[in-house]
Specification:
Helicase, Ruva Protein, domain 3; 3 domains; 5-stranded parallel beta sheet; 3-stranded antiparallel beta sheet; about 50% helix; binds adenosine-5'-diphosphate; binds magnesium ion; ATP-binding; P-loop_NTPase
Length: about 375
Protein backbone atom coordinates (compact mmCIF):
# COMPACT_ATOMS: atom_id res chain seq x y z
CA UNK A 1 0.00 0.00 0.00
CA UNK A 2 1.23 3.47 -0.87
CA UNK A 3 0.03 6.64 0.80
CA UNK A 4 -2.13 8.74 -1.41
CA UNK A 5 -3.69 12.13 -0.88
CA UNK A 6 -6.80 13.72 -2.31
CA UNK A 7 -8.16 11.22 -4.72
CA UNK A 8 -10.42 8.41 -3.53
CA UNK A 9 -9.10 4.88 -3.97
CA UNK A 10 -10.90 1.64 -4.74
CA UNK A 11 -9.05 -0.65 -2.32
CA UNK A 12 -9.44 1.12 1.01
CA UNK A 13 -7.62 -0.13 4.10
CA UNK A 14 -9.71 -1.91 6.73
CA UNK A 15 -13.15 -1.25 5.28
CA UNK A 16 -14.07 -4.89 4.58
CA UNK A 17 -17.07 -4.83 6.87
CA UNK A 18 -18.53 -1.67 5.40
CA UNK A 19 -17.94 -2.98 1.88
CA UNK A 20 -19.55 -6.29 2.70
CA UNK A 21 -22.56 -4.57 4.23
CA UNK A 22 -23.03 -2.33 1.22
CA UNK A 23 -22.79 -5.23 -1.22
CA UNK A 24 -25.24 -7.20 0.86
CA UNK A 25 -27.74 -4.34 0.97
CA UNK A 26 -27.45 -3.87 -2.78
CA UNK A 27 -28.18 -7.54 -3.38
CA UNK A 28 -31.32 -7.18 -1.25
CA UNK A 29 -32.50 -4.17 -3.21
CA UNK A 30 -32.31 -2.02 -0.15
CA UNK A 31 -31.85 1.71 -0.77
CA UNK A 32 -28.79 2.63 1.26
CA UNK A 33 -27.13 5.79 2.57
CA UNK A 34 -23.40 5.85 3.25
CA UNK A 35 -22.86 8.51 5.89
CA UNK A 36 -19.82 10.06 7.49
CA UNK A 37 -17.81 13.24 7.77
CA UNK A 38 -15.68 14.62 4.95
CA UNK A 39 -12.45 12.77 4.13
CA UNK A 40 -13.43 9.66 6.07
CA UNK A 41 -13.45 7.34 3.04
CA UNK A 42 -17.06 7.12 1.85
CA UNK A 43 -16.28 7.49 -1.82
CA UNK A 44 -13.42 4.99 -1.56
CA UNK A 45 -15.79 2.39 -0.12
CA UNK A 46 -18.30 3.11 -2.85
CA UNK A 47 -15.67 2.84 -5.59
CA UNK A 48 -14.70 -0.60 -4.34
CA UNK A 49 -18.31 -1.74 -4.43
CA UNK A 50 -18.84 -0.27 -7.90
CA UNK A 51 -15.71 -2.00 -9.16
CA UNK A 52 -16.94 -5.40 -8.05
CA UNK A 53 -20.62 -5.16 -8.91
CA UNK A 54 -21.03 -6.77 -12.25
CA UNK A 55 -24.26 -5.03 -13.19
CA UNK A 56 -25.00 -1.85 -15.13
CA UNK A 57 -24.12 0.99 -12.81
CA UNK A 58 -23.67 4.71 -12.80
CA UNK A 59 -21.90 6.99 -10.36
CA UNK A 60 -22.65 10.69 -10.03
CA UNK A 61 -21.09 13.12 -7.64
CA UNK A 62 -23.86 15.65 -7.08
CA UNK A 63 -21.32 18.13 -5.77
CA UNK A 64 -19.87 18.44 -9.28
CA UNK A 65 -23.07 20.20 -10.34
CA UNK A 66 -23.02 22.84 -7.64
CA UNK A 67 -22.72 26.38 -8.91
CA UNK A 68 -22.33 28.80 -6.06
CA UNK A 69 -25.41 28.39 -3.91
CA UNK A 70 -27.49 26.55 -6.46
CA UNK A 71 -27.32 23.38 -8.48
CA UNK A 72 -27.42 22.76 -12.22
CA UNK A 73 -30.24 20.24 -12.19
CA UNK A 74 -30.60 20.12 -15.95
CA UNK A 75 -26.90 19.41 -16.35
CA UNK A 76 -27.11 16.74 -13.70
CA UNK A 77 -30.06 15.01 -15.27
CA UNK A 78 -28.57 15.19 -18.75
CA UNK A 79 -25.44 13.56 -17.42
CA UNK A 80 -27.54 11.07 -15.48
CA UNK A 81 -29.52 9.93 -18.49
CA UNK A 82 -26.62 9.85 -20.90
CA UNK A 83 -24.50 7.81 -18.48
CA UNK A 84 -27.42 5.49 -18.05
CA UNK A 85 -27.83 5.04 -21.78
CA UNK A 86 -24.13 4.45 -22.39
CA UNK A 87 -24.07 1.88 -19.62
CA UNK A 88 -27.21 0.17 -20.91
CA UNK A 89 -25.71 -0.15 -24.38
CA UNK A 90 -22.73 -1.98 -22.87
CA UNK A 91 -25.03 -4.55 -21.33
CA UNK A 92 -27.32 -5.09 -24.27
CA UNK A 93 -27.20 -8.52 -25.86
CA UNK A 94 -24.90 -8.48 -28.88
CA UNK A 95 -27.79 -9.39 -31.12
CA UNK A 96 -29.51 -6.21 -30.09
CA UNK A 97 -26.43 -4.16 -30.44
CA UNK A 98 -26.08 -5.05 -34.08
CA UNK A 99 -25.88 -3.35 -36.44
CA UNK A 100 -23.11 -1.28 -35.01
CA UNK A 101 -24.40 1.72 -36.85
CA UNK A 102 -27.20 1.80 -34.37
CA UNK A 103 -24.82 1.87 -31.51
CA UNK A 104 -22.96 4.74 -33.05
CA UNK A 105 -26.18 6.55 -33.56
CA UNK A 106 -26.95 6.00 -29.93
CA UNK A 107 -23.69 7.50 -28.87
CA UNK A 108 -24.09 10.44 -31.14
CA UNK A 109 -27.43 11.06 -29.61
CA UNK A 110 -25.94 10.78 -26.18
CA UNK A 111 -23.44 13.44 -27.09
CA UNK A 112 -26.18 15.74 -28.18
CA UNK A 113 -28.01 15.01 -24.99
CA UNK A 114 -24.96 15.94 -22.96
CA UNK A 115 -24.65 19.20 -24.76
CA UNK A 116 -28.20 20.25 -24.58
CA UNK A 117 -29.37 22.48 -21.84
CA UNK A 118 -32.94 22.57 -22.91
CA UNK A 119 -35.97 20.43 -22.47
CA UNK A 120 -35.36 16.79 -22.98
CA UNK A 121 -37.59 14.03 -24.04
CA UNK A 122 -36.31 10.56 -24.46
CA UNK A 123 -37.77 7.55 -26.08
CA UNK A 124 -35.92 4.41 -25.36
CA UNK A 125 -36.72 1.28 -27.20
CA UNK A 126 -34.13 -1.41 -26.96
CA UNK A 127 -36.47 -4.25 -27.72
CA UNK A 128 -36.73 -3.16 -31.29
CA UNK A 129 -32.98 -2.91 -31.41
CA UNK A 130 -32.71 0.77 -31.52
CA UNK A 131 -32.00 3.63 -29.25
CA UNK A 132 -34.02 6.68 -29.92
CA UNK A 133 -33.61 9.96 -28.21
CA UNK A 134 -35.97 12.76 -29.03
CA UNK A 135 -35.03 16.16 -27.84
CA UNK A 136 -38.15 18.14 -27.59
CA UNK A 137 -37.91 21.76 -26.62
CA UNK A 138 -41.48 22.65 -27.27
CA UNK A 139 -43.13 20.02 -25.21
CA UNK A 140 -46.06 21.00 -23.02
CA UNK A 141 -45.33 20.98 -19.33
CA UNK A 142 -41.79 22.01 -20.04
CA UNK A 143 -38.76 20.99 -18.16
CA UNK A 144 -40.58 19.77 -15.05
CA UNK A 145 -42.47 17.13 -16.98
CA UNK A 146 -39.32 16.07 -18.80
CA UNK A 147 -37.48 15.59 -15.53
CA UNK A 148 -40.27 13.42 -14.22
CA UNK A 149 -40.00 11.28 -17.32
CA UNK A 150 -36.27 10.96 -16.87
CA UNK A 151 -36.87 9.56 -13.40
CA UNK A 152 -38.62 6.61 -15.02
CA UNK A 153 -35.67 5.90 -17.26
CA UNK A 154 -33.67 3.62 -14.90
CA UNK A 155 -36.58 1.26 -14.37
CA UNK A 156 -37.50 1.26 -18.06
CA UNK A 157 -33.96 0.47 -19.07
CA UNK A 158 -33.54 -2.24 -16.49
CA UNK A 159 -36.72 -3.93 -17.67
CA UNK A 160 -35.56 -3.68 -21.24
CA UNK A 161 -32.14 -5.15 -20.73
CA UNK A 162 -33.46 -7.43 -18.04
CA UNK A 163 -30.82 -6.55 -15.51
CA UNK A 164 -30.71 -4.78 -12.20
CA UNK A 165 -29.18 -1.31 -12.31
CA UNK A 166 -27.11 0.32 -9.60
CA UNK A 167 -27.26 4.09 -9.22
CA UNK A 168 -24.93 5.91 -6.86
CA UNK A 169 -25.45 9.57 -5.99
CA UNK A 170 -22.50 10.81 -3.99
CA UNK A 171 -22.92 13.90 -1.77
CA UNK A 172 -26.65 13.53 -2.27
CA UNK A 173 -27.65 16.25 0.20
CA UNK A 174 -26.79 18.92 -2.37
CA UNK A 175 -29.60 17.73 -4.59
CA UNK A 176 -31.90 19.40 -2.08
CA UNK A 177 -30.82 22.73 -3.58
CA UNK A 178 -32.70 21.66 -6.69
CA UNK A 179 -35.92 22.36 -4.87
CA UNK A 180 -35.27 26.07 -5.34
CA UNK A 181 -36.16 25.75 -9.00
CA UNK A 182 -38.04 22.47 -8.90
CA UNK A 183 -40.26 22.49 -5.83
CA UNK A 184 -41.25 18.97 -4.88
CA UNK A 185 -38.17 17.42 -6.47
CA UNK A 186 -37.48 15.12 -3.53
CA UNK A 187 -41.09 14.15 -3.37
CA UNK A 188 -40.97 13.14 -7.04
CA UNK A 189 -37.77 11.20 -6.49
CA UNK A 190 -39.20 9.24 -3.62
CA UNK A 191 -42.46 8.50 -5.34
CA UNK A 192 -40.63 7.15 -8.41
CA UNK A 193 -37.81 5.35 -6.64
CA UNK A 194 -39.95 3.41 -4.24
CA UNK A 195 -41.60 1.50 -7.05
CA UNK A 196 -38.45 0.83 -9.05
CA UNK A 197 -37.80 -2.68 -7.86
CA UNK A 198 -35.11 -3.28 -10.46
CA UNK A 199 -33.06 -0.26 -9.58
CA UNK A 200 -30.79 -0.05 -6.58
CA UNK A 201 -30.15 3.42 -5.17
CA UNK A 202 -27.12 4.16 -3.05
CA UNK A 203 -26.52 7.67 -1.82
CA UNK A 204 -23.80 9.14 0.32
CA UNK A 205 -23.23 12.36 2.15
CA UNK A 206 -20.81 14.30 4.30
CA UNK A 207 -23.16 16.87 5.66
CA UNK A 208 -24.56 14.33 8.04
CA UNK A 209 -27.01 16.62 9.83
CA UNK A 210 -28.37 17.88 6.53
CA UNK A 211 -28.98 14.33 5.38
CA UNK A 212 -30.63 13.38 8.62
CA UNK A 213 -33.02 16.27 8.09
CA UNK A 214 -33.82 14.82 4.71
CA UNK A 215 -34.71 11.50 6.36
CA UNK A 216 -36.87 13.04 9.08
CA UNK A 217 -40.51 12.33 9.66
CA UNK A 218 -42.79 14.16 7.21
CA UNK A 219 -39.89 14.44 4.76
CA UNK A 220 -40.11 12.59 1.45
CA UNK A 221 -37.27 10.20 2.29
CA UNK A 222 -38.56 9.24 5.74
CA UNK A 223 -37.86 5.52 6.30
CA UNK A 224 -36.41 4.91 2.92
CA UNK A 225 -32.63 4.56 3.14
CA UNK A 226 -30.80 2.13 5.36
CA UNK A 227 -27.81 3.98 6.82
CA UNK A 228 -24.23 2.74 6.96
CA UNK A 229 -22.11 5.01 9.17
CA UNK A 230 -18.45 5.32 8.26
CA UNK A 231 -16.31 6.01 11.31
CA UNK A 232 -12.71 7.16 11.71
CA UNK A 233 -10.17 4.36 12.20
CA UNK A 234 -9.73 3.49 15.87
CA UNK A 235 -6.30 4.19 17.40
CA UNK A 236 -4.95 0.70 16.71
CA UNK A 237 -6.11 0.71 13.11
CA UNK A 238 -4.67 4.16 12.49
CA UNK A 239 -1.31 2.99 13.85
CA UNK A 240 -1.50 -0.14 11.78
CA UNK A 241 -2.32 1.91 8.69
CA UNK A 242 0.71 4.14 9.13
CA UNK A 243 3.04 1.27 10.05
CA UNK A 244 2.01 -0.77 7.03
CA UNK A 245 2.36 2.25 4.80
CA UNK A 246 5.87 3.06 5.99
CA UNK A 247 6.84 -0.58 5.73
CA UNK A 248 5.68 -0.71 2.12
CA UNK A 249 7.47 2.53 1.38
CA UNK A 250 10.63 0.99 2.83
CA UNK A 251 10.86 3.62 5.53
CA UNK A 252 12.24 3.17 9.04
CA UNK A 253 9.79 4.17 11.74
CA UNK A 254 9.55 4.13 15.52
CA UNK A 255 6.46 3.38 17.52
CA UNK A 256 6.49 6.73 19.32
CA UNK A 257 6.49 8.55 15.98
CA UNK A 258 3.43 6.67 14.84
CA UNK A 259 1.67 7.14 18.15
CA UNK A 260 2.31 10.86 18.11
CA UNK A 261 0.91 11.26 14.60
CA UNK A 262 -2.24 9.32 15.43
CA UNK A 263 -2.73 11.40 18.55
CA UNK A 264 -2.94 14.50 16.35
CA UNK A 265 -4.80 13.08 13.38
CA UNK A 266 -7.56 11.09 15.03
CA UNK A 267 -8.10 8.30 12.55
CA UNK A 268 -9.15 10.38 9.57
CA UNK A 269 -7.75 8.49 6.55
CA UNK A 270 -7.11 11.55 4.40
CA UNK A 271 -4.92 13.17 7.06
CA UNK A 272 -3.12 9.91 7.85
CA UNK A 273 -2.25 9.63 4.16
CA UNK A 274 -1.06 13.20 4.02
CA UNK A 275 1.08 12.66 7.07
CA UNK A 276 2.43 9.50 5.46
CA UNK A 277 3.54 11.22 2.27
CA UNK A 278 4.94 14.28 3.99
CA UNK A 279 6.96 12.33 6.50
CA UNK A 280 8.33 9.99 3.84
CA UNK A 281 9.58 13.09 2.05
CA UNK A 282 10.75 15.05 5.07
CA UNK A 283 12.23 12.57 7.54
CA UNK A 284 14.92 9.96 7.44
CA UNK A 285 13.31 8.05 10.29
CA UNK A 286 9.74 8.50 11.41
CA UNK A 287 10.20 9.20 15.10
CA UNK A 288 8.48 11.52 17.52
CA UNK A 289 10.53 14.51 16.47
CA UNK A 290 9.65 13.90 12.82
CA UNK A 291 5.95 13.49 13.70
CA UNK A 292 5.86 16.79 15.58
CA UNK A 293 7.56 18.62 12.77
CA UNK A 294 5.41 17.13 10.02
CA UNK A 295 2.22 17.91 11.93
CA UNK A 296 3.33 21.51 12.38
CA UNK A 297 4.07 21.65 8.65
CA UNK A 298 0.63 20.30 7.83
CA UNK A 299 -0.98 23.16 9.78
CA UNK A 300 1.09 25.62 7.77
CA UNK A 301 0.68 23.88 4.43
CA UNK A 302 -1.08 26.21 1.95
CA UNK A 303 -2.82 23.28 0.24
CA UNK A 304 -4.40 22.16 3.48
CA UNK A 305 -5.15 25.70 4.56
CA UNK A 306 -7.04 26.33 1.33
CA UNK A 307 -9.17 23.22 1.82
CA UNK A 308 -10.13 24.22 5.35
CA UNK A 309 -10.53 27.90 4.54
CA UNK A 310 -12.84 27.07 1.69
CA UNK A 311 -15.06 24.97 3.94
CA UNK A 312 -14.93 27.64 6.65
CA UNK A 313 -15.88 30.42 4.28
CA UNK A 314 -18.91 28.53 3.09
CA UNK A 315 -20.35 28.70 6.59
CA UNK A 316 -22.58 31.51 7.78
CA UNK A 317 -21.39 34.27 10.11
CA UNK A 318 -22.68 32.67 13.31
CA UNK A 319 -21.36 29.22 12.49
CA UNK A 320 -17.91 30.65 11.72
CA UNK A 321 -17.81 32.54 14.98
CA UNK A 322 -18.84 29.49 17.00
CA UNK A 323 -16.39 27.22 15.22
CA UNK A 324 -13.56 29.61 15.89
CA UNK A 325 -14.60 30.00 19.50
CA UNK A 326 -14.52 26.24 20.09
CA UNK A 327 -11.29 25.90 18.12
CA UNK A 328 -9.66 28.50 20.35
CA UNK A 329 -10.64 26.40 23.34
CA UNK A 330 -8.60 23.55 21.90
CA UNK A 331 -11.34 22.02 19.79
CA UNK A 332 -13.76 21.19 22.59
CA UNK A 333 -15.73 23.24 25.07
CA UNK A 334 -18.86 25.17 25.95
CA UNK A 335 -19.92 28.50 24.52
CA UNK A 336 -19.84 30.52 27.69
CA UNK A 337 -18.55 34.00 26.96
CA UNK A 338 -19.21 34.00 23.22
CA UNK A 339 -20.59 37.31 21.99
CA UNK A 340 -23.67 36.08 20.21
CA UNK A 341 -27.37 36.19 20.98
CA UNK A 342 -29.11 32.99 21.96
CA UNK A 343 -30.88 32.76 18.63
CA UNK A 344 -27.64 33.33 16.70
CA UNK A 345 -25.98 30.58 18.73
CA UNK A 346 -28.83 28.22 17.94
CA UNK A 347 -28.68 29.04 14.27
CA UNK A 348 -24.90 28.65 14.13
CA UNK A 349 -24.84 25.39 16.05
CA UNK A 350 -27.55 23.99 13.84
CA UNK A 351 -25.64 24.76 10.71
CA UNK A 352 -22.40 23.28 12.12
CA UNK A 353 -24.30 20.11 12.97
CA UNK A 354 -25.86 20.06 9.55
CA UNK A 355 -22.49 20.29 7.87
CA UNK A 356 -21.15 17.57 10.13
CA UNK A 357 -18.35 19.67 11.62
CA UNK A 358 -19.20 19.37 15.32
CA UNK A 359 -20.66 16.87 17.72
CA UNK A 360 -22.24 17.36 21.11
CA UNK A 361 -20.25 15.92 24.00
CA UNK A 362 -22.20 16.90 27.13
CA UNK A 363 -24.96 19.40 27.63
CA UNK A 364 -23.68 22.60 26.08
CA UNK A 365 -20.27 21.11 25.29
CA UNK A 366 -19.26 20.70 21.66
CA UNK A 367 -16.31 19.17 19.88
CA UNK A 368 -14.92 19.91 16.42
CA UNK A 369 -14.67 16.53 14.80
CA UNK A 370 -11.77 17.17 12.43
CA UNK A 371 -8.59 17.92 14.41
CA UNK A 372 -6.82 19.58 11.47
CA UNK A 373 -9.78 21.83 10.86
CA UNK A 374 -9.87 22.67 14.55
CA UNK A 375 -6.25 23.76 14.52
CA UNK A 376 -6.30 25.68 11.25
CA UNK A 377 -9.48 27.59 12.10
CA UNK A 378 -7.63 29.24 14.99
CA UNK A 379 -5.23 30.71 12.44
CA UNK A 380 -7.87 32.13 10.08
N1 LIG B 1 -9.70 3.10 4.09
C1 LIG B 1 -8.81 3.90 3.49
N2 LIG B 1 -7.55 3.48 3.28
C2 LIG B 1 -6.66 4.30 2.69
N3 LIG B 1 -6.93 5.54 2.27
C3 LIG B 1 -8.17 6.01 2.45
C4 LIG B 1 -9.17 5.21 3.07
N4 LIG B 1 -10.30 5.92 3.12
C5 LIG B 1 -10.03 7.10 2.55
N5 LIG B 1 -8.75 7.17 2.16
C6 LIG B 1 -8.13 8.32 1.52
O1 LIG B 1 -8.61 9.49 2.15
C7 LIG B 1 -9.03 10.47 1.21
C8 LIG B 1 -10.51 10.76 1.39
O2 LIG B 1 -11.24 9.61 1.00
P1 LIG B 1 -12.65 9.68 0.28
O3 LIG B 1 -13.04 8.29 -0.05
O4 LIG B 1 -12.60 10.66 -0.82
O5 LIG B 1 -13.52 10.25 1.50
P2 LIG B 1 -14.98 10.90 1.52
O6 LIG B 1 -15.69 10.44 0.30
O7 LIG B 1 -15.60 10.38 2.78
O8 LIG B 1 -14.78 12.38 1.59
C9 LIG B 1 -8.67 9.91 -0.16
O9 LIG B 1 -7.42 10.42 -0.56
C10 LIG B 1 -8.56 8.43 0.06
O10 LIG B 1 -7.61 7.87 -0.80
MG1 LIG C 1 -16.51 11.59 -1.21
Amino acid sequence: MKFIFGRPIDEPFDREEEIKALNELISRNQPTAVLGIRRIGKTSIILNVLKNQNIPKIYINVEDFIEGKSIDIIGLFSYFSSSLLSEAIKFMEPRKRIPIVLKEKGEEAIKTLREILGYIKINFNINLGKVEIFLDSTKKGGIKESLKELLDLPQEISENINKKILIVLDEFQYLKLGEQNFPGLFHSLRSKWQFQNNVEYVISGSAVGMLENIFKKNQPFYQFFFPIYIKPFCKDKSEEFLSEGFQDEGKTFLEDGIKKAVEYLDGIPAWLNYFGIKSVLECRTIDEKCANKVIEDIYKDPVIQVIIKDEYNKLGKNARKILKFIANKGGEGNLRGIELSRSSINEGIKSLFNEGYIERKDRGVYRIIDPIMSKIVTML
